[in-house]
Predict the 3D structure of the following.
Amino acid sequence: MPQAPTRWVGPASTTFCADGTTPALAAFDLALGGVQWSYCSTDQAWRSVLGATDQVVYLNSITLDQTFELTALDAKSGAELWRRPLTPPTELGMGHAQGPFAAAGVVVLKVNDGSGDAIVGVDAGTGAERWRSTGDAVPTPIANTEEVVVVGGFDGLRGLDRATGVERWTSPMRLQDDSGVGVSRGSAAVTGNTVIVPAGGNLVAIDADTGQQLWQAHGLRHPSAWEGFVVGYLGQGPSQKVTALDAETGATLWTAPGRPSYGDLWAIGGGTVSVLDPASGIVAYELATGEVRWRRDDPRLGEPRSAEGDAVFVLWDSYLAVLSSTDGSIRWEVESPLGSTQMNSLGINSGSLFVSVDTLPPGD
């Protein structure tokens, strides 16, 4: 049976933070939904979780004065470990790089810390700088794999070793996102060592270790990937179609009605992709076949934002729920006081669900 909604706040208060403010990030028990800890900040900011391991969760913040910053928090306590200023994305489709954020114990960032733009590799736990790459035209990270970070954009791509920053390969292929969608996540998708890059009207898959082109297919808007599948969409409005490709060949596997969540976010995992049903509610498609695994028409559920293992996470403003990827049933749900804040993004590790919270004034 679904559990009763869990109030985000305790019965004796309306906030988590001692100064009367809403937390910038909260950690929930992944299995049960109870609050494990909260991280408080006085900054008014738009926030997103960029990645999480069992040791560290990484929180991106954009303040009202357009200051971009990455904060690393201890995943078990919420204690702040380190901070780094970030260079704002300046090109369409050049949002935060997809793929394992802290692979090989290194987080790769584009920063400006007073001496100009640079690509830096920092220790995932301490923030200590391991390597730095500078030049006349500093590229932007567009994709992460376990051993390589792909950087570049309109002027070509390069593969850098995550541990050392040494260049492994270069390619004249240009990232060119024609979707017209500007969101916080980058437009390149990652599965294993394969990086799928929008290149005008096409998608091009490259081997992240060598830079070799693997296949080319008709372009899908803002693709994402999971264990051998690539998912994107075609069309606009009610006519949008979800399309799945084989990540090894680029062959189209199936097309069905539906669209990603607001911000072009895909909930892919557990062998399904859960999307917004054009008719109403949420529908989960089998990744391999496009067959409907389950469908739910429940106005409370908001939008599917992420998936992991046998769970699908739905989020919208002040409502969060964890659904079973098997049948869409609710495992637990959270209702939070909204006011001038809203829950924004999710991150997951083996035991926690991390939820970032916007604290911008109303209307921003």
About this structure: The radius of gyration is 20 Å.
